[in-house]
Specification:
This protein has 20 helices and 17 strands. By secondary structure, it is an alpha/beta fold. It has three domains: about 70 residues, no CATH class; about 120 residues, Aspartate Aminotransferase, domain 1 (Alpha-Beta Complex); about 250 residues, Type I PLP-dependent aspartate aminotransferase-like (Major domain) (Aspartate Aminotransferase, domain 2), CATH 3.40.640.10. Strands 4-12-11-10-9-5-8 form a seven-stranded mixed beta sheet, sandwiched between helices. It has a four-stranded antiparallel beta sheet with strand order 13-14-17-16. Helix 6 packs antiparallel against helix 15. The radius of gyration is 28 Å and the shape is globular.
């Protein structure tokens, strides 16, 4: 029976002669359309061989399946989603959202030629980093600056340029691992430097560093931005390490990690060093991320003494790690928001979320609740207080007061609701807590309220 059904399957040339298929091919989609037809034929062939198909497959069925495959294949894999998780810097969801000014800068630069490496004033080749160097120095008070594609690259470049064949002294409590099993000791090995551990996991003293110093040493301090040690602990402050490095005439490198450009302590948030204050503690080199607390694109920003930055600029890895014009445009626009701190807090999404007003979050939760309840009155909804988080390896242990909408359904389980919400055209990514689906207002935009309510209503309609 299956052999007869297989023989009756239309040939590829018959499918390609269909009017709908020809129309799509004329649009310039021959390769994708042909591939979709092959996939559709394979699907029905396998269905027949497995015994799931006992009747002749019509040409229209194959073409219909092919167009469904074609549409899925043509859809962008990288797409916008709604973050309803309450994690502001969600690594899996793209970390920092750019400000409107940064998005406009990316569009303007990417859709046109630009003076990326051209000095308009002199009419000759220029330096791509000039676009952001001045604003970085103005904001941080540093002597010189260099930008690479992420902070891991920044650390590798610094150690490769300044510490190859040298002893890098670092506290055992600061040998961090970031995402993807990327560890500080591994970076050192790759750079050609030698790891010299001092102190213990929970306590490191100034004398521990001094006992290991020689003329071939480099001091490295790493801010533990993705975890926190509490209890019986002690670490050496950056200022004290800076004095020690100058006493012995060796460089001090500070991996700051997240890169807060505002002083969060002024807003009652403690534990995250401000870049400018770190510069005032006088290390020789500091590096930090552009896409975490700074709120810009993925980048690794290196600042410090000109003599060390100049060495890095000449290193072969600098070209391998350099950033492109779109990143430069987004970074410049983001940094310029910080000229006026009030504007930065208002315009940079990461800052406005971290410093969100609790009462305003509750008011917004009420509005979303009313829209959902109006369109889906049969749902079990409630507004609750909860805790959001910054995430993205920043400010570990810090939670933010937030307001959430808790959803339960008479038929669908929380896991099924969560699954269905992330399969809409613009996926809604939420979380499950206390056996309910949670929509956290800390990371939801007002302009998405109606869309979220419509998706929930459609989900209910599909169940009925």
């Amino acid at each position: 029976m299956s052999k007869e059904l297989l023989k009756k399957l239309p040939k590829m040339d018959q499918l390609l002669s269909d009017e709908k298929v020809i129309l799509e091919i004329k649009k310039g989609n021959r390769v994708m359309m042909t591939d979709a037809l092959r996939k559709s034929l394979d699907y029905f062939r396998n269905e027949i061989l497995s015994g799931n198909m006992t009747e002749e497959v019509l040409k229209e069925d194959i073409i219909g399946k092919a167009f469904s495959i074609f549409e899925d294949d043509m859809e962008m894999n990288l797409k916008p989603v709604i973050n309803a998780t309450g994690t502001i810097l969600h690594t899996n969801l793209g970390r920092s959202r750019l400000s409107k000014a940064a998005c406009e800068a990316v569009y303007n630069i990417s859709s046109s030629y630009s003076n990326l490496e051209y000095d308009i004033e002199k009419g000759e080749r220029g330096e791509r980093y000039d676009a952001v160097t001045d604003i970085i120095l103005k904001l941080t008070g540093a002597e010189s600056a260099l930008v690479v594609n992420n902070n891991a690259a920044a650390v590798l470049l610094i150690l490769s340029a300044l510490a190859k064949d040298k002893d890098v002294i670092v506290s055992r409590g600061e040998q961090v691992e970031i995402g993807g099993k990327f560890r500080v000791p591994d970076i050192m090995e790759q750079s050609g430097s030698r790891l010299v551990e001092v102190g213990t996991t929970n306590k490191t003293h100034l004398s521990d560093y001094e006992d290991k110093i020689n003329e071939n040493s480099v001091l490295l301090k790493v801010h533990t931005s993705n975890f926190k040690l509490i209890g019986f602990t002690e670490e050496v402050e950056l200022k004290e390490l800076s004095k020690l490095s100058k006493k012995h005439g060796i460089p001090l490198v500070y991996d700051l990690g997240s890169g807060a450009m505002i002083d969060f302590e002024a807003y009652g948030i403690y534990g995250e060093p401000c870049v400018r204050k770190s510069v005032e503690d006088d290390p020789d080199v500091i590096c930090f991320s552009g896409d975490k607390l700074l709120g810009g694109p993925q980048a690794g920003i290196i600042i410090g003494r000109k003599k060390y930055i100049d060495i890095m600029k000449k290193h072969p890895l600098t070209r391998a790690f350099r950033i492109d014009k779109m990143t430069l445009a987004a970074l410049e626009a983001t940094l310029k928001e910080y000229i006026d701190e009030k504007n930065a807090i208002k315009n940079i999404p990461i800052l406005s979320r971290i410093l969100a007003n609790k009462n305003e979050l509750h008011e917004r939760a009420k509005r979303l609740y009313e829209i959902i309840a109006l369109k889906s009155p049969e749902l079990n909804l409630s507004i609750e207080e909860d805790k959001g988080q910054i995430g993205g390896g920043s400010m570990p242990g810090l939670t933010i007061d937030t307001a959430v909408i808790s959803i339960n359904h008479a038929i669908l389980s929380p896991n099924e609701i969560e699954r269905r919400l992330r399969h809409f055209e613009k996926p809604i990514i939420c979380r499950i807590s206390r056996e309910s689906v949670i929509l956290d207002l800390l990371t939801i935009d007002d302009e998405d309220f109606d869309y979220i309510a419509d998706c929930i209503m459609k989900m209910n309609q599909d169940v009925k």
